[in-house]
Specification:
Layout lengths: L2 H32 L8 E2 L12 E2 L1 H26 L14 H26 L14 H19 L26 E7 L1 H20 L2 H16 L2 E7 L2 E6 L6 E5 L3 E9 L8 E5 L2 E5 L3 E8 L4 E5 L3 H15 L1
Parallel strand pairs: 9-11
Antiparallel strand pairs: 1-2, 3-4, 4-5, 5-6, 7-10, 8-9, 10-11
Helix pairs in contact: 1-2, 1-3, 2-3, 2-5, 3-4, 5-6
């Protein structure tokens, strides 16, 4: 694959991931524009668990602006994420699957769910004398879930494919000589602006969804934002215990590879596209914490599985781990 082919694939993935979010809000905006004489003023935007309007109301034009902003914001977020996450770098024994396709499927699924819920919110206001009389239709969430399943499957199918990036990593990094009782401690921290942006967007979307549609749906999206925040940074430590990763601003959860489990360590250039995106990744033959593109520590465990983490100073970390592995033999 040439560099032009990679760039074209990346551009198409960004566009394909972004488009559904604009389409998701379009039917609701169309109804708001075309059926002004059938809508109360103001209209209801928030409903409780029983589908009853419960206090948040808005003018028709404010609702249109809100939906348009939500659609454009999500389109930019998912489009940029897909475009950046699809960059191909030097491969490192990851899956032969094209994992970037599944991110596009997820993007389409979220757009389908959001579109169904928002359409139900707008439909609840049709032909109502007042906003307080609006009731969320019972078909709202079944429609959203059905659209999510169908749209997600279609998105994964139409996403452009790229060749497999599976291959072997580079040679084992030379070991740092260590005495049997010598104490060592090495640590570095790395963070991702993209994951922080995604987290903020999901948290904001959760708030908007909770306010305009349903508290439970909003809480689920906000929880996803909190989980992404946990995966937005990592502190990497190598000491006598082995390799330790402390995730998120609180340093929790933690992931450990004991020194006794390390067979060898090396360094490779990796990209999020090889693992299907940023964060904690699980792919056949490997586990990874991918915070950015660039140098990564690659640890081979006794099981044959590899653990990968992007971090500055990976060569030093690999040398220390190889030195530790030598003292355990």
């Amino acid at each position: 694959m040439t560099s032009d082919d990679v760039s074209l694939t990346r551009d198409w993935r960004g566009s394909i991931a972004a488009g559904p979010h604009l389409l998701a809000v379009a039917p609701s905006i169309a109804v708001l524009l075309a059926a002004a004489d059938r809508l109360p003023d103001p209209i209801a935007l928030h409903f409780d668990l029983f589908g009853t309007a419960n206090g948040l109301f808005s003018s028709r034009w404010a609702a249109i602006a809100l939906l348009a902003g939500l659609g454009v914001g999500l389109a930019l977020l998912f489009g940029l994420y897909a475009r950046q996450g699809s960059r191909l770098g030097s491969p490192v024994v990851v899956s032969s699957w094209d994992l970037g396709r599944w991110f596009i499927g997820l993007s389409w699924a979220m757009a389908g769910l959001l579109g169904g819920v928002l359409f139900g919110v707008v439909a609840a206001n049709l032909d109502q004398p007042t906003a307080t009389a609006a009731a969320l239709p019972g078909w709202t969430f079944p429609l959203g879930l059905a659209l999510a399943v169908v749209a997600g499957a279609v998105g994964a199918l139409v996403a452009p494919r790229t060749p497999s990036t599976a291959s072997e990593p580079g040679p084992t990094t030379p070991a740092v000589p260590l005495g049997a009782t010598e104490q060592i401690s090495w640590s570095r921290s790395v963070g991702s602006h993209w994951l922080l942006v995604l987290s903020a967007a999901l948290l904001a979307t959760g708030v908007v969804l909770g306010v305009t549609a349903n508290a439970v749906a909003g809480a689920i999206v906000a929880l996803a934002g909190a989980l992404v925040l946990l995966l937005g940074s990592v502190a990497v430590t190598v000491d006598r215990r082995g390799l330790t990763l402390a995730l998120g601003p609180l340093g929790w959860p933690r992931v450990r590879v004991p020194a006794e489990d390390v067979v060898s360590a090396t360094v490779a250039d990796v990209s999020p596209g090889q693992f299907g995106g940023w964060g904690y990744r699980i792919v056949p033959g490997a586990r990874a914490v991918i915070i950015r593109s660039g140098p990564a520590l690659v640890v081979t465990r006794r099981s044959g599985q590899r653990f990968v983490v992007t971090v500055d100073g990976a060569t030093t970390a690999a040398g220390l781990l190889n030195g530790l592995a030598g003292t355990k033999r």
